[in-house]
């Protein structure tokens, strides 16, 4: 245990700091603005209600008000322990707007959901370690990752995005160790928690040998389909409507230029589903490009960094095509991009700075379809440019990387189906 603590010290410290700063900011921070009510994330309470219903095996109520759930059931599954703890403490879980000015449940739910989302920090640190990043670079990675994670957990209360991204990064690492089966199950768990990671599944598939591809895809689909099937069997009408239409409200969140093409629903909402399907189609195109590149790629850390970067590009497609956005939508590609940039100061420092600026700048409340979306996409693109691996750089293979990365120099099929840029002993 001491060895693990030593290896993961930086994400541990970053998690503790984020919890402390987040709780202080939500409880005492509003006093700076002359307000007495705590600044708690409204979205969290509705998902906790869904988790509480799962705790009591009420599958029929998973997609009925006031849960507002439109994701797969894994979003609520990961919060079941949080709901159980708050219920055991005798703290009520009410929907958004009914919590009161000082919800006591936040004192437990806040630290728990933030710690849950911190799995992404640990996954990014594991990726940086495998890439051979030095400890000072991993410290900066943890600090920048925690600053960006604030938007997802403390500000908006959506730990499912962080959990899914963390599981996805672990899936990438599993491929790096030639564990295609494990990568498939990890990707499947990520999809079940938050389907946004479907954008990166084609990129993962590009790293698998053809004979292993059916198994990878089957494992990536199984957990989400099983959970969704159980919810649909309990309440088909509510489940099918929530999952297929993907409603979002442009009067509450940030409309983008794509809103002019999105189907409009009752109550002023728009359907995000078609735009997300288009993003998946473009992600498949990215996978084709990745596969062609890797047929001529060198082995070692450069290949892993390349995969992480293309994963970030695929995840960024959601923000590029979404008709209505919220600030935390920007976070998943930022986490993957920081991990890809971790071996190099020249990439990590500007990427970390841009990520921090984007995280806090994105909280502004502009509603014009162009005024908010345009600078956010520009900063997101700039982050990807800064984080992009440089194949010709001497940073791609160092002595520390040689200790943890495979030493093949050609693309061949590994023992568990990954191409040789990742094959070798774990």
Q: Outline, from the CA principal axes?
A: globular
Number of domains: 1
Portion of residues within helices: 55-70%
Q: What proportion of the residues form beta strands (DSSP E)? A: under 5%
**Number of H- or I-type helical stretches:** 19
> Measured on Cα atoms, how large is the radius of gyration?
21 Å
Coarse structural class: mainly alpha
User: How do the helices and strands follow one another from N- to C-terminus?
Assistant: HHHHHHHHHHHHHEEEHHEHHHH
Largest sheet: 2 strands, antiparallel
Q: Please mark out the parts with pLDDT under 50 across 5 or more consecutive residues, or reply none.
A: 392-426
Number of strands: 4
Order of neighbouring strands in the sheet with most strands: 1-3
The end-to-end distance, rounded to whole angstroms, is 20 Å
Average pLDDT figure: 86
How does this structure look, described?
- This protein is mainly α and 426 residues long.
- It has one domain (2-94, 104-404).
- Helix content is 61%, strand content 2%.
- The protein contains 19 helices and four strands.
- The protein has helices at 2-7, 9-27, 42-55, 74-77, 80-88, 106-117, 119-130, 135-155, 159-176, 180-193, 201-206, 213-234, 236-245, 273-294, 301-321, 331-341, 345-361, 373-387, 399-404; strands spanning 247-248, 254-255, 270-271, 324-325.
- The strands form two sheets. The protein has a two-stranded antiparallel ribbon with strand order 1-3. A two-stranded antiparallel ribbon has the order 2-4.
- Helix 12 packs across helix 13 and helix 14 packs antiparallel against helix 15 (301-321).
- The relative contact order is 0.12.
């Amino acid at each position: 245990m001491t060895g693990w603590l030593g290896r993961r010290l930086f994400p541990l410290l970053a998690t503790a700091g984020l919890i402390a700063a987040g709780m202080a900011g939500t409880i005492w921070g509003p006093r700076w603005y002359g307000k007495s009510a705590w600044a708690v994330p409204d979205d969290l309470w509705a998902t906790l209600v869904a988790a509480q219903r799962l705790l009591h095996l009420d599958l029929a109520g998973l997609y009925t008000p006031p849960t507002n759930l439109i994701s797969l059931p894994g979003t609520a599954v990961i919060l079941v322990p949080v709901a159980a703890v708050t219920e055991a403490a005798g703290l009520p879980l009410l929907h958004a707007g009914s919590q009161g000015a000082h919800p006591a449940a936040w004192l437990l739910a806040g630290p728990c959901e933030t710690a849950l989302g911190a799995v992404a920090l640990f996954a990014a640190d594991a990726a940086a370690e495998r890439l051979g990043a030095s400890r000072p670079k991993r410290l900066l990675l943890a600090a920048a990752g925690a600053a960006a994670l604030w938007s997802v957990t403390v500000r908006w209360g959506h730990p499912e995005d962080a959990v899914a991204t963390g599981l996805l990064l672990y899936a990438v690492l599993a491929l790096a160790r030639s564990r295609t089966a494990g990568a498939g199950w990890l990707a499947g768990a990520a999809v079940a928690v938050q389907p946004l990671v479907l954008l990166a599944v084609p990129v993962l598939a590009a790293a698998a040998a053809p004979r292993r591809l059916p198994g990878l895809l089957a494992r990536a689909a199984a957990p989400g389909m099983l959970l969704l099937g159980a919810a649909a069997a309990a309440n088909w009408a509510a489940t099918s409507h929530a999952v297929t239409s993907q409603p979002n409200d442009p009067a509450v969140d940030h409309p983008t230029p794509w809103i002019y093409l999105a189907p409009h629903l009752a109550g002023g909402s728009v359907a995000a589903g078609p735009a997300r399907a288009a993003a998946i189609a473009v992600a498949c195109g990215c996978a084709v490009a990745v596969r062609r590149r890797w047929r001529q790629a060198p082995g070692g850390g450069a290949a892993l960094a390349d995969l992480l970067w293309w994963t970030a590009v695929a995840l960024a497609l959601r923000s590029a095509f979404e008709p209505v956005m919220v600030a935390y939508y920007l976070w998943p590609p930022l986490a993957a991009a920081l991990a890809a940039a971790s071996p190099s100061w020249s990439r990590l420092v500007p990427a970390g700075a841009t990520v921090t600026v984007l995280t806090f700048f994105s909280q502004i409340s502009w509603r014009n379809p162009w005024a908010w979306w345009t600078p956010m996409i520009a900063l997101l693109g700039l982050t990807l440019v800064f984080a992009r691996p440089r194949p010709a750089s001497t940073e791609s293979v160092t002595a520390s990387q040689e200790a943890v990365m495979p030493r093949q120099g050609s693309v061949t099929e590994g023992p568990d189906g990954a191409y040789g840029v990742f094959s070798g002993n774990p």
